[in-house]
Amino acid sequence: MGGDVSSSAALNGKRLVLAVTGSIAAYKAVGVLRALQTQGATVSVIMTRGATKFMTPLTFEVLSGRRVVTDLFEAHEAMPHLTMAEDADAVLVAPATANVLAKAALGLADDVLTTMLLNVRCPVIVAPAMDGEMWTHPTVVQHVDVLRARGVIVLDPEVGPLASGRVAQGRLPAEEKVLEAVHAVVCPQTDWRGQRVLVSAGPTQEPLDPVRFLSNRSSGKMGYAIAEAVRARGGDVVLVTGPSALRPPSGVTAVHVNTASEMADALSQHFASCSVLIMAAAVADFRPRVTASGKLKKQGKSEMELVLEATPDILTMLSARRTSQVVVGFAAETEQVLSHAIDKLRGKGLDLIVANDVSHVGGGFGSDDNAAVILSATGEQRVFGLMPKRQLADEILNAVRDLCFMAPRGASLVE
Ligand code: CTP
Fold first, then answer.
1. Within a 13 Å sphere around the CA of 196, how many CA atoms are in the beta-carbon half?
2. Three-state DSSP class for 181?
3. Which domains, ranges and CATH numbers included, belong to the chain?
4. pLDDT value of residue 366
5. How many Å is the Cα radius of gyration of the chain?
């Protein structure tokens, strides 16, 4: 994250363009505008024609104290699409419709906003709002991917009740999330600049036959949150991910794998060029000894025995191979969390381990939140109650920075 989002002067001296487009969530842009101003930002507002059907330009004009631009061909200002964004620190499109995402991805320029988006050189943050069916439509997915690959920060809409009456992912992200994104862009924290970080995430799938596999409940959320946090703090990320429904964050190199063995290969390939490994993946410990080439048949059997063999322990293998890398592991436990975590910290030769109780109500697999204890090889402990995984990701990075980058490693619990 950037600076202190709650600080009243955090955006002092920053110039922002707020673009409001034609979604029912346009009324929420008033709250976003007020919050940005409260923190000291000077905000100019652009509205698309669709936005003016939901809100009047006068509302934004009075609140921003500046003329609201709605038309590319307004007679009294030459080329507003060029002048407005010229010295902006960021452009925030909130709410952004599927139509605007599509036009921006394709480079169309048929109004003042889309024309400006082709001209800006400052960071662009987009906060979409639309019906859930639209957000998951393959065309929208494709346009979001194109924009993210181009460096545009596209926030994920939130799940909740929508104007259509449905409950789905499509709500404008909460005001604080939008503000957090603005902060990260205009007051970036850069303490991870220069670090190249290898992050693993998600489950692995170990095939039994062409249609069945053994896997676990990992969603990938923790690893993806870490990848996003490293990126936001100036580091480079290679994200090696098992199957996950999540989209890799902007600016991250994603490598998709299925099995533990593929994950081991991908991580081995990138390990030497990285300065830190954060192993958040839930790697299968065992896989079927034999993968059938055809679908296994019942053939009237009432039971079936499955012979499993151990997968390679990737962390142990890579930490033995390290030169100067910091190596961080996770310990997913359901009992005696700390003592098991310390055993793994020692046994796998780690610098830090993030221990979490996966039986904890409200945290762990699949949840947006997590509670954890971070233990270092030098004996330090940091305890965190239930918090969003994105926030815990920042705490993990703080711990690596304070306990590993700053402190000499070696004198440790690890013999
Ligand atoms: N890990 C790994 N390779 C494996 C299994 C686990 O690199 N084959 C890593 C995980 O990514 C995690 C750490 O080791 O960072 C601990 O994983 P966890 O599942 O908690 O423990 P295990 O070592 O698998 O031991 P157990 O399942 O007995 O608790």
1. 9
2. helix
3. 15-186 (3.40.50.1950), 196-288+302-406 (3.40.50.10300)
4. 74
5. 24
- The three-class DSSP label of residue 179 is helix
Task: Supply the DSSP string of 341-369, one letter for each residue.
Answer: HHHHHHHTT-SEEEEEETTSTT-STT-SE
CA of 11 to the centre of ligand 1 (A): 43
Q: What's the pLDDT band for 359 if we cut at 50, 70, 90?
A: confident
Question: What pLDDT does residue 81 have?
Answer: 60
Nearest CA to ligand 1 atom 18: 331
78: Cβ contacts below 8 Å, ≥ 6 apart = none
Q: How far is the CA of 331 from the centre of ligand 1 (A)?
A: 7
Mean pLDDT of the region 14-33: 97
Res 341 pLDDT > 90: yes
CB 95 within 8 A of CB 25: yes
The structure tokens listed for 403 are 């306990």
Per annotation, catalytic residue among 119, 216, 258, 398:
216
Which residues have CB under 8 Å from 14's CB, separation 6+?
Answer: 40, 41, 42, 89, 90, 186, 187
- Write out the two tokens for 108: 């169309």
Say yes or no to pLDDT of 43 above 90: yes
**Strand runs (DSSP E) across 109-195, as ranges?**
124-128, 153-154, 158-161, 167-171
Structure tokens given for 251: 């600016």
pLDDT value at 326 more than 60: yes
398 is annotated as an active-site residue? no
What letter would DSSP give residue 295? P
Tens-digit pLDDT profile for residues 213-261: 999 999 999 999 999 999 989 999 999 999 999 989 888 999 999 999 9
For range 119-127, the mean pLDDT:
94
Which pairs from 250-253 meet CB under 8 Å and 24+ separation? 250/148, 250/149, 250/151, 250/152, 250/153, 250/154, 251/151, 252/227, 252/228
Q: Measure the CA dihedral 35/38/41/42, to 10°.
A: 100
Which residues touch 16 (CB under 8 Å, ≥6 apart)?
A: 36, 41, 42, 43, 44, 88, 89, 90, 91, 92, 182, 186
Ligand 1 cavity residues, CB under 6 Å? 260, 279, 281, 283, 285, 311, 313-315, 329-332, 344
Ligand 1: nearest atom to the Cα of 348 = 14
Model confidence band, residue 383 (pLDDT cutoffs 50, 70, 90): very high
The overall average pLDDT reported for the chain is 91
